[in-house]
């Protein structure tokens, strides 16, 4: 049985899911509630507070239409998060020596905890500053 790090390409289901999400968020404007209903943030729905990911759907829609400033205005975290995710996926599924440190960092428990702390801190900060 091969280990996950020995894979050379992403699983087809991952690619299919990502492609489907891109198509949906390209054609469906999450700001237009009258069209296809997209999931709402449960935290915002029940408490009125924004979670760290609130605005991601609108931000992704704007980004897919080339509206970078608008995408940032919905959630400052989306663009860096997408870039980081792409780099981590590429590092995970390739054996390029230059990407070994990124692969090791992504697998590091302390780095994962730090990322979670940053995500939570962003959620708290955006509610304090109302952004």
Descriptive notes:
The chain is mostly helical and 131 residues long. Helix 1 crosses helix 3 and helix 3 packs antiparallel against helix 4. It is 63% helix and 0% strand. It has one domain.
- SSE series: HHHHHHH
Sheet-strand content, in percent, reads under 5%
Average pLDDT across residues?
86
Summarize the amount of helix as a percent range: 55-70%
Give a short summary of the structure:
With 131 residues, the chain is mainly α.
List the topology elements.
Blueprint lengths: L11 H16 L14 H6 L8 H9 L3 H7 L3 H16 L6 H8 L1 H20 L3
Helix pairs in contact: 1-3, 3-4, 5-6
From the structure above, extract its key features:
63% helix, 131 residues, mainly alpha
């Amino acid at each position: 049985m091969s280990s996950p790090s020995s894979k050379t390409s992403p699983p087809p289901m991952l690619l299919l899911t990502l492609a489907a999400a891109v198509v949906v968020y390209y054609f469906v404007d999450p700001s237009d509630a009258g069209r296809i209903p997209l999931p709402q943030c449960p935290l915002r729905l029940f408490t009125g507070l924004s979670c760290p990911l609130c605005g991601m759907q609108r931000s992704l829609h704007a980004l897919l239409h080339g509206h970078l400033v608008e995408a940032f205005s919905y959630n400052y975290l989306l663009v860096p998060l997408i870039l980081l995710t792409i780099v981590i996926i590429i590092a995970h599924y390739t054996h390029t020596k230059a990407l070994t440190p990124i692969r090791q960092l992504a697998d590091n428990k302390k780095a994962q905890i730090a990322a979670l702390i940053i995500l939570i801190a962003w959620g708290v900060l955006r509610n304090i500053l109302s952004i």
